[in-house]
Specification:
- This protein is 30% helix and 24% strand.
- The chain is of the alpha/beta class and 392 residues long.
- The protein folds into 2 domains: 160 residues, Rossmann fold (3-Layer(aba) Sandwich); 185 residues, Dihydrodipicolinate Reductase, domain 2 (2-Layer Sandwich), CATH 3.30.360.
- The strands form 3 sheets. The chain has a 9-stranded mixed β-sheet with strand order 17-16-15-14-8-13-12-9-18. Strands 1, 2, 3, 4, 5, 6 and 7 form a 7-stranded mixed β-sheet that branches. The chain has a two-stranded antiparallel ribbon with strand order 10-11.
- Helix 1 crosses helix 8 and helix 7 crosses helix 9.
- The termini are far apart.
- It binds nicotinamide-adenine-dinucleotide.
- Nicotinamide-adenine-dinucleotide binds next to helix 1.
- GO terms for molecular function: oxidoreductase activity.
- Belongs to the Gfo/Idh/MocA family.
- Pfam families: GFO_IDH_MocA_C3.
């Protein structure tokens, strides 16, 4: 079958997300299926150029996967005329300057979140990208997870009636690193290196809430550093200067509802899991409720809602969990990162609409920034709309 190639520079492939989700599970998986089928019957074949700091690591990854193109010189990668897209999954603190270089080089941009360390940087990137006339996209993988797709389907189908409230619980125990190695990189726990659970997770909560329920208009947050000392990759102790727990209240304006929906989301790397999944959202509505995780979603309709009676003198008489119904898949769910890569590639080559762009990314950074300010100042903060003025 005829195929066209598209050159993609991948920066950050030695990292957790870059290697596993973006290289192996997305782009190599697209190659394994023979390329991405296009409208005209041809296939799009991603040609990959790996970029990073360590020649040894890049060569090792390239060899392992039969790839031949890699460089430790980002500018050299960006100067290649056969490259159309720049992808970034570096540590957050390195992202903005690399994205600026790629925009200057006239490449389309696809990037991990958060797009920048602060709002002004994130907005400037979006403006520069628009002014350069390039296409841009930001990873919003949670939207493509089966559990949240099913939740979105319930919302769009009108299952809930009037939506009353949302509660989210995200987290697990991240080992300190002394007697068992930590399962997340140490930069996540140092503020100066772009770490912190608010900067990491609020961008996710922003697009989940905005895309499924409505515009997020206010935030109130409390943040903590629960574990003050951790041990790094070399086994050395360091001070955890970033927040590792955040308790947020988000107010959402939803079309057709007269008062805002309140979403409370706990995010923590200092909790032990007594849940079915590492993140779960419970949505309660007048007509029914749902609990959605990464993969599964369960519902209870008003017609099957039991009538519990509060009586602490007696043991619970109902098995509450068994009273919920499983929402069926009804479709095949591919890896969420791959699904979004495919949409972005179609946006670039076939001009398909694509809304998860640097502006959406900037709104996520804005929520993180205002969430941190809310915690610092001990008050609720309203979220202004971002202005998409052209770059000066
Ligand atoms: N979408 C998601 O669900 C999700 C999940 C986790 C992380 N992320 C984002 O992905 C990005 C990478 O996170 P990760 O967990 O893969 O991190 P990681 O530490 O595993 O990987 C970081 C990558 O950046 C490179 N790098 C470049 N300059 C660096 C520097 N000065 N110091 C250290 N590393 C440097 C590393 O070599 C490596 O390739 C972050 O921005 C993070 O917010 C997204």
């Amino acid at each position: 079958m005829a195929r066209t190639t598209i050159g993609i520079v991948l920066n950050g492939v030695t990292g957790r997300m870059g290697y596993r989700q973006h290289l192996v599970r997305s782009l190599l998986a697209i190659r394994e299926q023979g390329g991405l089928p296009l409208r005209d019957g041809t296939r799009l074949w991603p040609e990959l150029v790996l970029v990073g700091r360590s020649e040894t690591k890049l060569r090792e990854i390239a060899d392992r996967h039969g790839l031949t193109e890699w460089t430790t010189d980002l500018n050299a990668g960006l100067a290649r005329p056969d490259v159309q897209i720049y992808f970034d999954s570096q540590v957050t603190a390195q992202r903005e300057k690399a994205l600026r270089l790629a925009i200057e080089a006239g490449k389309h941009i696809y990037t991990e979140k958060p797009t920048a360390e602060d709002l002004s940087g994130a907005v400037e990137l979006a403006r520069l990208a628009d002014a350069a006339g390039i296409k841009h996209g930001v990873v919003q993988d949670k939207l493509f997870l089966p559990g949240l797709r099913k939740l979105d389907r319930l919302v769009r189908g009108g299952f809930f009636g009037r939506i009353l409230s949302i509660r989210g619980e995200f987290g697990y125990w991240v080992f300190e690193g002394d007697w068992q190695p930590a399962q997340r990189p140490s930069w996540n726990y140092r503020a100066a290196d772009g770490g912190g659970i608010v900067v990491d997770m609020f961008p996710h909560w922003h697009y989940v809430l905005e895309q499924i329920f409505g515009q997020v208009n206010a935030v109130t947050a409390h943040v903590s550093t629960l574990i003050p000392t951790r041990w790094d990759e070399a086994g050395e102790p360091y001070e955890a200067t970033a927040d590792d727990a955040a308790y947020g209240i988000f107010e959402i304006d939803r079309a057709g509802q007269s008062s805002p929906i309140v979403a409370q989301i706990n995010s923590s790397w200092g909790v032990r899991v007594y849940r079915d999944e590492l993140v779960e959202f419970q949505v309660d509505g007048t007509e029914g409720s749902a609990v959605a995780g990464l993969r599964n979603c369960r519902i209870q309709h008003r017609s099957t809602t039991p009538k519990p009676v509060w009586n602490p003198d007696l043991p619970a008489t109902e098995d509450f969990r068994s009273q919920w119904q499983v929402v069926p898949d009804n479709e095949e769910f591919d890896n969420g990162f791959k699904a979004q890569w495919e949409l972005f590639l179609r946006h670039v080559v076939e001009d398909e609409p694509y809304s998860w762009d640097l502006w959406a990314g900037a709104r996520g950074v804005q929520l993180a920034e205002l969430g941190l300010r809310s915690a610092r100042e001990g008050r609720r903060i309203e979220i202004p709309e971002l202005q998409a003025e052209p770059s000066k």
